[in-house]
Specification:
Blueprint (H helix, E strand, L loop, with lengths): L5 H10 L27 H12 L7 E5 L1 H4 L3 H5 L4 E5 L5 H6 L1 H5 L5 E4 L3 H5 L4 H16 L4 E5 L16 H24 L3 E3 L2 H4 L19 H17 L3
Parallel strand pairs: 1-2, 1-3, 3-4, 4-5
Helix pairs in contact: 8-9
Length: 242
């Protein structure tokens, strides 16, 4: 595989899902500086957290917990249910999810669907570290007697980011990191009797990239992809009579 320059890594980490440029590394480094609090520099995070404090919804049985993919749909309308809320923040990473768990707890949900990980992977966070934080989030939710549903981290498309330095080689490599994370998540779900929704098996092509017809920019979903996703969510909800 062609050697990927550190500049490409910086561009990808800075641009992915509108990530704040302050989180990008110096071009002199081959790995981003480890900073578990950098989610705080995400403007979207700073804007959304106060909104959660003023929303009038006091209880919701179903919470869709994630990043911009989750934020991209009106889930109460997509699922046709009044008892579902969306708690997705564009550009968020799992350290950010962990820090805002109180905003989930206060809704007293019965079930939480977690979606995320691609921002972390395009920030070059090691898979084992991502998985470790993910497991902490799962255990924290379970401690509140909440049903946790793991959803596979989704792929990027082959030509994602081509207008600002992204290449098929970079995206292929990042998708293989997605595979590593999803293997860990699927095994964890199986061993701990948790539900696991494998969206990649339904949205990826044989080339192991997100199918181009399902995305408008290479990572974010179009309506057809949300339709697929919603169908899988409904299957889990039916299992729990929710």
């Amino acid at each position: 595989m062609k050697r990927i320059s550190s500049l490409h890594k910086v561009i990808l980490a800075a641009m992915f899902l509108s990530i704040n440029p302050l989180s990008a590394q110096s071009t002199k480094s081959t790995q981003p500086v480890k900073d578990t609090l950098r989610y705080r520099t995400n403007t979207n995070y700073q804007l959304q957290i106060p909104m959660y404090d003023i929303y009038k919804t006091r209880q919701a049985d179903i919470v869709m917990f994630g990043n911009s993919l989750t934020h991209g749909a009106a889930w109460n309308e997509l699922l046709g249910r009044p008892n579902v809320v969306e708690r997705g923040i564009t550009s968020d990473v799992f350290y950010g999810y962990e820090s805002r768990l109180n905003s989930i707890y206060k809704l007293n949900p019965k079930i939480v669907f977690i979606m995320g990980g691609l921002n972390d992977i395009y920030n070059w966070t090691p898979v084992n570290e991502i998985f470790s934080v993910y497991v902490r989030i799962i255990n924290a939710l379970k401690s509140k007697k909440i049903i946790v549903v793991i959803q596979s981290t989704t792929y990027s498309a082959k030509n994602y980011g081509k207008d600002w330095g992204g290449t098929p080689e970079v995206n292929f490599g990042r998708n293989r990191e997605v595979d590593k994370l999803n293997n860990l998540l699927a095994d964890y779900a199986k061993n701990n009797k948790l539900d696991y929704i494998d969206l990649n098996s339904l949205t990826a092509g044989k080339d192991l990239f997100l199918r181009p017809e399902l995305t408008w920019d290479g990572v974010h979903f179009k309506a057809d992809a949300y339709k697929i996703w919603a169908r899988e969510v409904e299957k889990v909800l039916a299992k729990y009579n929710l």
